[in-house]
Amino acid sequence: MHEKDSLHSHYYLTHREQHKSCELKPLHVALLLVTLVTTGIAYSIVLPVLPFLVEEIGGIRDSSLIALHTGFLTASYTLAIALGAPLWGKLVDRIGSKKVILIGLTGLGVTLVMFSLPENLYLTYAGRFLSGLFDSAIPPAAMIAVSRYKASDEWKARRLSWIGLASVIGALIGPIFGGVAVRLAERNPWAVGGQSVFDVPFLVAAALAFVVATLILLIFPANYTNDRCEAASPEISEEHPDIVLRLLMLAFIAALAISSFEVLLTMRAKAVLALDSYRIGLMFSECSLVMFLAQAIVFSPLVKPQVTRHLIVPALLLMIAGMWLIPFGDGFLPMMISVGMVAAGGGVVSPILIYWISLIVKRRQGETLGRQVAAASLGQAFGAAISGLLFGYTTVALMPFLIISVLIGAGLALSMRLPSQLAPFIQSANR
To answer: pLDDT digit string (tens) for 143-161?
Structure first.
């Protein structure tokens, strides 16, 4: 034991300066964060207007069909992320983060413009799927950069949490932009010409993607794939695939819950409470703000990263409670309270899972982090699809919320033994 401790001590003393030199510079970290904000906006800016867009493009008046297409359109985006993220993660290992991010942003901008043009609902599905496919390149590329260039696990935990926070900020800003853009277009029809006012949010998100891609091209360094900067232990440890699989399953369930909540919230607010897109956008923004605050607190200097493994179960319980309150809310304020509870739980769980996966896996990080993104995106896709279907075609108002709560309960069962199973990795990281 003493010899092993001496080996680790010698390794970190002799390589401390090298790790410091390999940290991402503040400007480069800022660019990564802006990129993640952009992807968050691209995803969320259209959520408040999707039911109205389905109604206009598809000529659909049946609320059940509107709910179904709203869920499926949301699911098509996240399903594409689930399919693309592992492949992009492997590609980052070969060509580096910068090239993959550039491909992702450029493709995202082009497909968002395409999405604003079709007057056919099925072409809209194609545009939404392609947008998600290019979006899927960006999160794993950013996470891999942070995972490989670090001076300590605390440094990595903070930066990974920043990446999550950046996505949340984008999701926070997006719905407000979407609602405001539609209102401005309605008041100034000359500004959009023959375009539908509901196409404007897509064009705004596309313009932002092109601007950020230009900044990445000009400023972000090309050679962030240097093996000497990769965070590796002097001894290769086991990967513990059973624990990683459990964490990936939890990522799937947490994302499913959030996505289901978003679709059910949108449909209940429109079909039952008759709220307009602006107030629906405010609820989405509150959701993102609460998630932001919860995540910022969990990965602040006030909380040790190793303590976060104990927060998974309480966060899932909070999500279940919030999900149960939604169908009983008969106005804007009760809905906002439910939103806050679900968002707080989701804001705590998701970044914790990313941190522990990155801590456990020492080899093939690109591939594994791509799988984490894929698991979360698949959960989003499944949650959006099933919630739209349940809301539109179940006669019992509580049924969609009951089914989603049961699925979150399955996550509770998976989480019960995790704190003790993750404890050994804390000792390994602190050597």
So the answer is: 887 776 555 666 667 777 7
